[in-house]
Amino acid sequence: MASKVKEIFVCRECGNESPRWEGQCRACNSWNSYEMSTHVSFGKSSKNSSKKSPKKLNDINILEQSRISTGIEELDRTLGGGLVAGQVILLGGTPGVGKSTLLLQLAGLFSQKVLYVSGEESESQIALRSNRLGISSDLISIISTNSIDDALIDIGQKLLIIDSIQVMESQEIPSRAGSVTQVRECAAKIVNSSKNNGYATIIVGHITKEGSIAGPKILEHMVDTVLYLEGDKSHLFRMLRVHKNRFGDDSEVGIFQMQSNGLCGVENPGKLLLGGEVSPKSGSATAIVLEGSRPLCIEIQALTTKTSFGYPKRAVSGFSLNRLQLLCAVIQKCLNINLIDQDVYVNVASGLNVKEPAVDLAVCAAIISSYKGVAIPRETAYFGEVGLTGEIRKVVASDRRIKEAKALGFTKILSPDNVKNIASVL
Ligand SMILES: [Zn+2]
Predict the structure, then answer these.
(1) Is 283:301 a contact under the CB 8 Å cutoff?
(2) pLDDT greater at residue 357 or residue 53
(3) How many Å lie between the centroid of ligand 1 and the Cα of residue 31?
(4) pLDDT higher than threshold 50 for residue 43
(5) Three-state DSSP class for 333?
(6) Ligand 1 mean position to 288 CA, how many Å?
(7) pLDDT at 393 exceeding the cut of 80
């Protein structure tokens, strides 16, 4: 293929191209995001030029995609039933969260041929890690390379794992690995090869400090499915969140627990996420939140103490700081509780990150409970969004939340159905 190389500038954030360097990207407005890159235009593409004609919607046969089980039940559920032939999945996560561990486990449990490409570890390092995780399978082949062309060989695999996209490079592109052009070109090659040969591919992408996958956003557009493995190195639980899925529900969440033999799916997360405390203490409330389609009961802890400096401190872990400040203001106004001279700390137990507004009521209950020194009985659980005037607003999937909480032994459930105002929360 004849190729021509031309110098251009590409935005690191959105992949926008410009013929010259600019301080601010015109497409996404991020500053100092242009990097020099090269544009490779290949000669005439050999795409087949058979004309396509539109079909009537009712005449189109729906092909039920046959799913290939990954061997990990929790992962299958998250993906909407398993892998689809030709599917390309991007798995993002901060370094050390357990992406490689999960993929190695997957390779070990997969019932068909797997090709594991690592640009970060040598073959023997991977073998050592497999040994530690108790994985041994005749179906896994390992190759340690940074060249995308070496990685995309066909050995009859039904699953290709690429760890990671940031270290892969194509010799045709004269820029370094991890640059926008490299990431984009390598991803294009992977998608092409995967679709043409009919194997599923999982690409690992590391996450930057800002929380997005290093490399252009364009990567997320090119793949079929985007998964993020979230969690804290120092905590037990990991959440596998779906951000995009062309073959299933994009709101699913898989919950895993880190154990010595790798990540294990948590079948009944409700119980595990609750604290082990038997006698109730003040400052702890149980929230029923929805993660994907599944309701979870999690413990919310709050601590209020007298401020020792002039300015009250607000700190959170696993919850939004802005949201806490707002809730503090609402509590102050509606309940006449003076939080001005109180430091308020809120912690979501087990290291989870809760973004759903339905957790508001439990956060307020925990804060009020800590402030008043009154413990909330163990059989009480909360869900509901708190409005600015202190009213409790309805949230989605009320029935499912109540059902889950009852199944876990909660007998008193405070929700928008029976609490109208934050003043009657405790
Ligand atoms: Zn941009």
Answers:
(1) yes
(2) 357
(3) 8
(4) no
(5) helix
(6) 39
(7) yes
User: Rounded to the nearest whole angstrom, what is the distance from the C-alpha of residue 104 to the centroid of ligand 1?
Assistant: 34
Ligand 1 geometric centre to CA of 219 (Å) = 14
Same fold, 67-267 and 271-424: no
Q: CA dihedral in degrees (8, 11, 12, 13; nearest 10)?
A: -160
Q: Where are the beta strands (DSSP E) in 212-328?
A: 225-231, 237-245, 253-259, 262-265, 284-291, 294-306, 314-317
Given a cut of 80, is residue 217 above it in pLDDT?
A: no
CA distance 107 to 116: 8
- Indicate the class that CATH gives domain 67-267: alpha beta
Ligand 1: centre distance to CA 177 (Å): 20
Q: Give distance in angstroms: CA of 11 to centre of ligand 1.
A: 5
**35 CA from centroid of ligand 1 (Å):** 11
Ordered by start, the domain boundaries in the chain are 3-42, 67-267, 271-424
Supply the pLDDT for residue 410. 86
Distance 257 CA to ligand 1 centre (A): 37
What spacing in Å lies between the alpha carbon of 161 and ligand 1's midpoint? 29
Whole-angstrom Cα distance, residue 153 to residue 180? 24
The alpha carbon of 244 and the centre of ligand 1 are apart by a number of angstroms equal to 21
pLDDT in tens, 232-242: 777 778 888 88
How far apart, in whole angstroms, are the C-alpha atoms of residue 235 and residue 137?
A: 30
SS3 category, 422: helix
Averaged confidence pLDDT in the chain: 85
Instruction: Report how far ligand 1's centroid is from the alpha carbon of 179 (Å).
Output: 14
Q: How many CB atoms lie within 10 A of CB 5?
A: 11
- The confidence band for 1, taking pLDDT boundaries of 50, 70 and 90, is very low
Ligand 1 centroid–CA 181 distance in Å is 14
How far does the centroid of ligand 1 lie from the alpha carbon of residue 20, in Å?
A: 14
pLDDT band with cut points at 50, 70 and 90 for residue 125: very high
DSSP assignment letter at 176: -
220 Cα–ligand 1 center, Å: 15
> From the CA of 210, how far away is ligand 1's center (Å)?
15
pLDDT at 214: 64
Report the distance separating Cα 164 and Cα 205, nearest Å: 6
| Class of the CATH domain delimited by 271-424 | alpha beta
How close is the Cα of 25 to the center of ligand 1, in Å?
5
